[in-house]
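Anyone able to model this chain together with (R)-mevalonate?
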Amino acid sequence: MSHAKAILIGEHAVVYDQPAIAIPIPTVRMQVQLTPRSDQQQLITSAMYNGSLQAAANSRFAGIAVLIRQLLIRFDAVTQGFGLNIISDLPPERGMGSSAATAVAVVRAFHAAFSAKLDHAALLRWAGISEHIIHGNPSGIDAATCSADRPQWFIRGQKPRSLALPHTGVLVIADSGIQGQTRVAVAAVAQRLQMDPASMELITGLGILTRRAAVAMADDNFATLGAIMNSAQSKLAALGVSNEPLERLISSARANGALGAKLTGSGKGGCILALAADADAAAKIATALIAAGATQTWQYDFAK
Ligand code: MEV
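re: yes, here you go
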């Protein structure tokens, strides 16, 4: 099992060693069922890919297929027949961590099937195998959050830490319906930093905003947290990872009472995140977002 994640603040900057805050969304679940087969067939069933493990090498499932092959080697079970069924509530490629959640759930399913111990650091190392193939240069935040129970203060290469949360407030996540492209977005930011080294100021600026967001969260200061989210969105747009559909949803959330709104995840499609003062405000924002073209919304209530 694993679940979705939403990055509150710090995406992209986290690739360059700045902190980020990410929130597990346990209600949006990913489940992997692994059952042995008496023949030697190794079959995958999922929304993304249906077929043999061998044929997955040339599919969108290729990164997870490499992970599965390495797990089979680890468990000395390369010729073991199995059926692997992935049941996911997560929309793929929408900045909600679908690839990381799949990796985490697959690694857990294999360790459970072979009754092997799995500590959290090892889980993240395993998930890193497919994340590197799928995303090129992952910070590790997606796998850390898709496997966590509590919101995470994440710095690349360090053990993720839980952090103080507001006592009220609701986050509304809305799907633009457009596939985000993490690999493309991360590569575009890298290219931009190479062509224009002065844009590193946007990255360090995002790091400063993330530190201020952690203080605002601990103080239950929503007005400040919302303003910080809006500033982060401006910096992400300046980095080139926003787009018109995301901006439309962000404007709609702000016009309908959000204290702040920004894209979440890699951008260039995917989801936005809006901060609402309470459940009533969140319901109004969610309705407005659907009217503005969002295909689906979810909520994360800090009080629960
Ligand atoms: C993607 O969910 C978050 C990014 O910062 C990439 C990463 O940290 O690996 C865009």
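Residues 7, 11-12, 14-15, 95, 135, 138-139, 141-142, 182, 186, 265-266 surround (R)-mevalonate (CB under 6 Å).
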